[in-house]
Design brief:
Blueprint lengths: L1 H20 L8 E5 L9 H16 L4 E4 L6 H7 L7 H10 L4 E9 L6 E9 L4 E10 L5 H13 L12 E7 L5 E4 L2 E5 L1 E6 L2 E8 L6 E7 L4 E6 L32 H24 L23 H4 L4
Parallel strand pairs: 1-2, 1-3, 6-12
Antiparallel strand pairs: 3-4, 4-5, 6-9, 7-8, 7-10, 10-11
Helix pairs in contact: 2-5
Length: about 325
Amino acid sequence: MKRTLLRLCLALVALTAMSAASPVGARAGEKVLGMNVEGDKLSPKDKKDLFQVLQAKLQRYPDITLMNPSSHELIDDMIELECIDLDLSCLARLGVKYGADRIVYAQVDPVKGTKGYTLQVKIADANKATMLRDQSVAVPSMAALAGALEAQIEAVWGKPPEIAPPAADGTLVVDASVPTATIYVGTDYAGTGTATISKPPGKYTVRVAADGFDEQVMEVEVTAGGTVTKSVTLVASVMKAPDDGKKKPDDPSKKKIDDDDDGSDWILWAVIGGVVVAGAATAIALAASSDDGPTRAPVVLSVDPNNAWRDAAVTGARP
């Protein structure tokens, strides 16, 4: 009986230990705040490099929404939150302040007399005020710090999903019927006449243009590892008849009256004509009544030649 109870107790202890050591995983959409790496003896560059390792690791978990750390110094936040030590209570308050569900803190300190370091990692659930990870590990060298930090992250979230290799490119061949035609794929120049290019899988707009021909635009789809050939036949553009340089006669029906020709010019010429005729009549009358005898002087008038035979001054007839 005692042995049975002892075995049950040992089994419960082992199960509890396994549960505590197993990764808790990520909740969909949970916000994780990765804080800046601390360490008095680390150079700013070393701390920045380790922080980038931390962020890059957390980004590989698709269910995590990664948050950037505050620009405030950690000590300033601790004073504001009245934290004496960076314990669970302080980490939970930091998470609540910045709206994070979980918070990750890492500190690196050199081991005196050696080339090694001590890496301390704390991961807390701010909502539940639960410490998910609080461990210090010995690291033999600076180069080994990145791997040790990643291992601590995996202890809580498990191994991230494998990154799928990039899809193989496909081959696109565009063959134009005109050897001088210019070929574009998207906005990129692809070649002249015939173009063969490699493209990631997807849909692309192909444009083929040549002088004297109608431009052709089409959409093609490239598949991974496949070859797509597109033959493009260009059609000659319809050309307009050339101009022979001869002036065509004006169309009387389309003749436009000048803006200044409003029909008032005939009035002006009528007035001038009246003045001339009146002046001529006066001159003839004076000549006829003169006392100087029979001497006559020809009077020349600017009259219409077609009516000159009617003018007495021209014919010599007396009134």
